[in-house]
C-alpha cells in the first residue's frame, strides 16, 4: 500500500498551519481525510472546496472528544488506515512566568492527546494492517524535542515525551504491520507564537502579519505524504539539517549550551515578547 488512494486518514489540528497543509496534500493524493480541530468555523474554512475531506470538531485535550472522534471516523468510514497526530499548543515563556493553565494545556494537547488518540486508534490500525498489509501512525514532533532552548522549555518537554513515545511504539507494532513515523520540523511559518499567547484565530486574509519566521508548512506536509507511502517507518527532520540539533545532547556541547543559554535566557525572552507584540498588532 504505497498509494494513498482511498485510505482513511485522521488528521488532528487540521484547521491551520501544518495540519491544514497536510489535509490539502492528502486529499490531493485521493486519500479520504477526516480532519479535526477545536474551532468549528476555522476548520470549515480550511476544508472548503477540498474534495475527499470531512470535518469533525474535536479537542484532543478532552478524553470525551478523543473517544468520540475515533468512534466517528470508524463509524462513518468503516475503517481507519492512518492517523496524523499534529495538534499542538505552544507558550513561549520562561518556566516561572508560564501560567498554570498554559502548562496543563500543553501537556494535555501535545502529549496526552497524542498518546491517547494513538491508543484509541491502534485496534483499528492493527486490523487495517492485518487486512490490507499496512497502517500508519505519524506524529508531528519538533526540533525543540532535540534541542531545548528558552523560552520553550515546557513545550520542548512535551515534544521530547512524544519523541520517546514514537520510538517505543515503533518497537511494539512494526512486526504487526503498523509503521510509526515522526516528522521533526524546525521553525515553521504559522500563527503558533501568537496563538500560544491567547490570540484568537483570524481569517486567512488577516493571518499574514501574524506568521512566525520559518519554512512553509507545505514542506512538512510533503514529508508526511512521503512517510505514509514509505515501505518503512521514518523519522525525518525538516529541513534535513535540523537533525544536527541532536548534537546539543552530546558532551561537552551540552554543558557549553547550559552555560551559554542560561546566561542569555532573559534576553531571549525579551526578544520573544517583542516578536509576539509585533504579530499581535
The fourth-level CATH homologous superfamily is NAD(P)-binding Rossmann-like Domain
Give unreliable regions as ranges: none
Strand order of the largest sheet: 3-2-1-4-5-6-7
Continuous helix count: 9
Number of strands: 7
Instruction: Let me know the largest β-sheet.
Output: 7 strands, parallel
- Radius of gyration in whole Å, from Cα? 18 Å
Q: What percentage of amino acids are in beta strands? A: 5-15%
Shape: globular
- What is the structural class? alpha/beta
H/E series, N to C? EHEHEHEHEHEHHHEH
The domain count comes to 1
CATH topology: Rossmann fold
User: What is the CATH top level name?
Assistant: Alpha Beta
Helix content: 40-55%
Arithmetic mean of pLDDT? 94
Distance linking N and C termini: 47 Å
GO molecular function: oxidoreductase activity
Protein name: NADP-dependent 3-hydroxy acid dehydrogenase YdfG
Keywords: Oxidoreductase
InterPro entries: NAD(P)-bd_dom_sf, Sc_DH/Rdtase_CS, SDR_fam
Amino acid at each position: 500500500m504505497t498509494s494513498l488512494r482511498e485510505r482513511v486518514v485522521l488528521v488532528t489540528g487540521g484547521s491551520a498551519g501544518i495540519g491544514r497543509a497536510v489535509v490539502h496534500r492528502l486529499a490531493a493524493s485521493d486519500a479520504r481525510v477526516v480532519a479535526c480541530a477545536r474551532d468549528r468555523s476555522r476548520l470549515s474554512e480550511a476544508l472548503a472546496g477540498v474534495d475527499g475531506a470531512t470535518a469533525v470538531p474535536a479537542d484532543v485535550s478532552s478524553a470525551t472528544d478523543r473517544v468520540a472522534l475515533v468512534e466517528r471516523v470508524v463509524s462513518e468510514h468503516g475503517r481507519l488506515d492512518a492517523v496524523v497526530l499534529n495538534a499542538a499548543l505552544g507558550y513561549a515563556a520562561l518556566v516561572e512566568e508560564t501560567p498554570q493553565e498554559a502548562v496543563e494545556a500543553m501537556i494535555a494537547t501535545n502529549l496526552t492527546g497524542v498518546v491517547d488518540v494513538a491508543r484509541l486508534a491502534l485496534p483499528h490500525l492493527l486490523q487495517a494492517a492485518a487486512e490490507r498489509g499496512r497502517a500508519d501512525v505519524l506524529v508531528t514532533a519538533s526540533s525543540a524535542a532535540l534541542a531545548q532552548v528558552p523560552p520553550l522549555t515546557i513545550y520542548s518537554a512535551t515534544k521530547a515525551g512524544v519523541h520517546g513515545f514514537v520510538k517505543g511504539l515503533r518497537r511494539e507494532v512494526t512486526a504487526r504491520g503498523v509503521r510509526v513515523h515522526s516528522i521533526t520540523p524546525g521553525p515553521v511559518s504559522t500563527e503558533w507564537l501568537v496563538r500560544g499567547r491567547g490570540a484568537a484565530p483570524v481569517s486567512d486574509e488577516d493571518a499574514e502579519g501574524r506568521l512566525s519566521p520559518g519554512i512553509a508548512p507545505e514542506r512538512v506536509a510533503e514529508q508526511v505524504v512521503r512517510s505514509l507511502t514509505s515501505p518503512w517507518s521514518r523519522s525525518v527532520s525538516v529541513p534535513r539539517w535540523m537533525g544536527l540539533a541532536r548534537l546539543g545532547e552530546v558532551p561537552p556541547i551540552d554543558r557549553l549550551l547550559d552555560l551559554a543559554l542560561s546566561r542569555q535566557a532573559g534576553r531571549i525572552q525579551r526578544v520573544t515578547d517583542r516578536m509576539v507584540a509585533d504579530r499581535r498588532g
